[in-house]
Amino acid sequence: MADTNKTDLVADDGSEDINGIPEMVAVSGASGFVGSALVNALSGDGVRVVRLVRDSRKVGADAVLWNPSAENCDLTGIDGSSAVVHLAGESIVGLWTKAKKRRIYDSRVAATRNLVLSVLKLKHRPKTLICASAVGFYGDREIEELTEESSAGEGFLADTCQQWEAAAQLAREAGMRVVNLRIGVVLDPSGAALQKAISAFRSGLGGRFGSGEQYMSWIALEDLVRMIVFILSHDSVSGAVNAVAPNPITNAEYTRKLSRALNRPAILNAPEFLLKLAPGGIAQELFLASARAVPARILAAGFEFDYRDIDKALEHFLSKR
Ligand SMILES: NC(=O)c1ccc[n+]([C@@H]2O[C@H](COP(=O)([O-])OP(=O)(O)OC[C@H]3O[C@@H](n4cnc5c(N)ncnc54)[C@H](OP(=O)(O)O)[C@@H]3O)[C@@H](O)[C@H]2O)c1
Question: Which among 79, 177, 217, 272 has most CB atoms closer than 10 A?
């Protein structure tokens, strides 16, 4: 990784690692937006990455088959990994029908449980599990500042995240270090969140959601990847970690800043009543809910963000396009 601070990469336990990061790491959801960036970064650092793939046609030297629905997967191919980074899950984007919500839930809760049960059967267990979760854990919390100590919220995403984290608890009980990454909206020009917003503005359809007073906890993809690498090499980090930039922003501010950066008007605000017509509660939970999360635990561990503020992040993203 280009700008990883090597002094951050000294393992706390002094184990034999390359630059402090493990020699071999298993990654689920490796073909996804976050997973592919992580795999590139780790591979660039000389780490052997073994991908957990769901499609038998993709099995290979560094790709091992797993089945999110089976608790008895033979994961011998990842034996020897120091860590598993578990990012797999059905996309939350799309129509929230009953079936889609079931897939969102099962592909996180049952799949995490099943992965952990299979990992625990390995001869040489990895010592670390970094498991994705989301700031959706906190539900809709208006202006309350949310640290990892804050209570869980209510709603479909909050329930899903709680059960997702609980499923990873099995690994903790078995003695593994478990980190539940409560990820905010991940921003990068290669990702759907920013691409959709930019194309809306470019077509003159940019605007805030509802009142715009709701907070959005966001993180630059590059910082998220650096944070995962940092956690891999810092054994003192465990438990819930808010994977968000230190300065969350309201939807109205974000809209205004994006509008200014793109030099496009932000006039087409989406009224709350219209958004709420979307089925399954998706608008309430994804666009209107307020989560003002701060990364208390990772800052205390010494992690340094490259993108603390949205202005610098947007400038960087737009220059990358
Ligand atoms: N991106 C964000 O803004 C954001 C915010 C908060 C939390 N998160 C969480 O972070 C994780 C990674 O996010 P991402 O944006 O990289 O997601 P993504 O691009 O949708 O990738 C997720 C990966 O999971 C696997 N997958 C897809 N459907 C699945 C299913 N039904 N069951 C099991 N695995 C399935 C796929 O990988 P394979 O085909 O390689 O198996 C897919 O590439 C997810 O768990 C997500 O909920 C992301």
Answer: 217
Calpha distance 120→184 (Å, rounded): 29
Sorted by sequence, the CB contacts under 8 Å of residue 94 that are 6+ apart come out as: 100
* Residue 109 to residue 126: CA distance in whole angstroms: 20
Give me the pLDDT at residue 267, please: 84
Domain that holds residue 15: 6-188+217-244+293-306
pLDDT tens digits, residue range 265-315? 988 889 898 888 888 989 999 999 999 999 999 999 999 999 999 999 999
Q: Cα(143)–Cα(165) distance, rounded to whole angstroms?
A: 24
Ligand 1: which residue has its CA nearest to atom 15? 33
Are the CB atoms for 182 and 134 separated by under 8 Å?
yes
Alpha helices by DSSP H, 107-182: 109-120, 156-173
The structural domain count of the chain equals 1
For 183-229, write each residue's pLDDT tens digit. 999 999 999 999 999 999 999 889 999 999 999 999 999 999 999 99
Helix 98-106 vs helix 109-120: crossing angle, to nearest 10: 20
Q: β-pairing, 249-250 with 215-216? A: antiparallel
- With both helix axes pointing from N to C terminus, report the angle between 221-233 and 33-44 in degrees, rounded to the nearest 10: 50
Which protein residue's CA is at the shortest distance from atom 35 of ligand 1?
89
State the pTM of this model: 0.94
Tell me the CATH number at 110.
Answer: 3.40.50.720
User: Which residue among 183, 218, 225, 244 is best mutated to probe the pocket of ligand 1, counting the most ligand atoms within 8 A of its Cβ?
Assistant: 183
Which residues' Cβ are closer than 6 Å to ligand 1? 29-35, 53-54, 68, 87-91, 103, 107, 111, 132, 134, 183, 185-186, 193
| Tens of pLDDT, residues 119-169 | 999 999 999 999 999 999 999 999 999 999 999 999 999 999 999 999 999
